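Ops channel
N.P.: pipeline sanity check, posting one input/output pair.
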């Protein structure tokens, strides 16, 4: 009985609650914002990067994708107007996911936008793009609109209306669901979806419809309770996968660095500081590269932090110290090496480990700043 009690309590927590609501919101806001800012910055160059004017042309991409089975909506047509539509959908879905509007639907469209553009030109990007690629898929499984979202605000208004005896009617959700179902039907009949993708998209579409129907017809019924349990399990599993993925990224990066001779002799950080591509501020890069002792400490410190971080999760205080060090390191990389989107992606991945108390405090500061700016 002494063993069963904590196990039962843990099972009830995992099935009865979507854990980490603030961490999930940070992941949603961080990755949607990073991808949105990237798309807007590269808007003048979109045709050369992902479109018809790129060196990796449409036919070359088609042959590659036919072999690896990757998903990209840009392979459905080589028309320029279709590229503009896909790019626009990627921008709009990123903005709406950032705001937390219809997060279940927008997370799917966000994933489609990320996969479509990145799989179209696989040789463009860096480690930050790979992280966004993975996290865009995981976001589909998260209930990431519980806090800091327009969905949460709408749900709060619905609860107040129910207490007052004014049940609200959601008209936007069903219209959006039917419109996307129609588009999915057209794509399926055209034979553009291969492999597991038809099953995945139709499964998600049907699950969203069942969720709405259960909440509409019997919000307190057994079916809705069962769907809540399944959604909580899927969410908690997805959040765990994101945490494990972040640990794997740092662990593998750290162990690969240990095998490199430049990291072993403490000079690895010196070289990128002297490359024009990674020197947006030449004077600052030159100043930093002139201090050999500091560069050696940064080089060794980076390896130690990356290798040690997964093992510090069992000690909250040590974990928080290393977490702050990694976030500061990525902020420095963004400024000194000119890699803002890579750094934003990694900081967002780091934020999943931040304590809830810290995130709630940051949320209160942001709310006060918003009120002060509005006034």
């Amino acid at each position: 009985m002494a063993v069963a009690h904590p196990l039962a309590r843990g099972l009830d927590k995992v099935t009865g609650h979507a854990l980490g609501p603030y961490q999930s919101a940070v992941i949603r806001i961080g990755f949607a914002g990073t991808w949105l800012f990237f798309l807007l910055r590269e808007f003048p160059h979109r045709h050369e990067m992902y479109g018809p004017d790129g060196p990796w042309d449409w036919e070359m991409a088609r042959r590659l994708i036919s072999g690896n089975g990757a998903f990209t909506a840009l392979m459905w047509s080589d028309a320029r107007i279709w590229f503009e539509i896909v790019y626009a959908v990627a921008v709009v879905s990123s903005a709406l996911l950032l705001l937390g509007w219809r997060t279940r639907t927008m997370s799917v469209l966000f994933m489609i936008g990320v996969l479509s553009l990145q799989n179209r030109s696989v040789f463009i990007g860096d480690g930050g793009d790979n992280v966004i690629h993975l996290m865009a898929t995981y976001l589909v499984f998260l209930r990431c609109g519980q806090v800091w979202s327009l969905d949460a605000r709408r749900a709060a208004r619905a609860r107040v209306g129910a207490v007052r005896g004014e049940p609200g009617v959601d008209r936007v959700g069903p219209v959006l669901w039917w419109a996307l179902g129609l588009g999915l039907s057209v794509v399926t009949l055209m034979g553009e979806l291969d492999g597991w993708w038809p099953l995945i998209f139709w499964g998600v579409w049907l699950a969203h419809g069942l969720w709405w129907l259960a909440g509409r017809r019997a919000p307190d019924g057994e079916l809705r309770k069962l769907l809540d349990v399944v959604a909580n399990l899927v969410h908690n599993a997805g959040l765990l996968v994101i945490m494990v993925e972040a640990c794997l990224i740092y662990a593998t990066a750290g162990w690969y660095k240990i095998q490199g001779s430049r990291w072993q002799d403490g000079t690895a950080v010196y070289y990128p500081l002297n490359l024009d591509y990674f020197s947006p501020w030449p004077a600052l890069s030159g100043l930093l590269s002139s201090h050999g002792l500091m560069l050696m400490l940064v080089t060794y410190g980076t390896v130690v932090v990356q290798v040690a971080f997964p093992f510090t999760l069992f000690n909250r205080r040590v974990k928080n110290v290393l977490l702050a060090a990694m976030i500061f390191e990525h902020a420095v990389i963004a400024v000194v090496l000119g890699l803002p989107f890579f750094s934003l992606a990694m900081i967002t991945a780091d934020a999943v480990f931040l304590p809830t108390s810290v995130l709630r405090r940051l949320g209160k500061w942001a709310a006060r700043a918003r009120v002060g700016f509005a006034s």
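N.P.: looks fine end to end. The mean pLDDT is 90.
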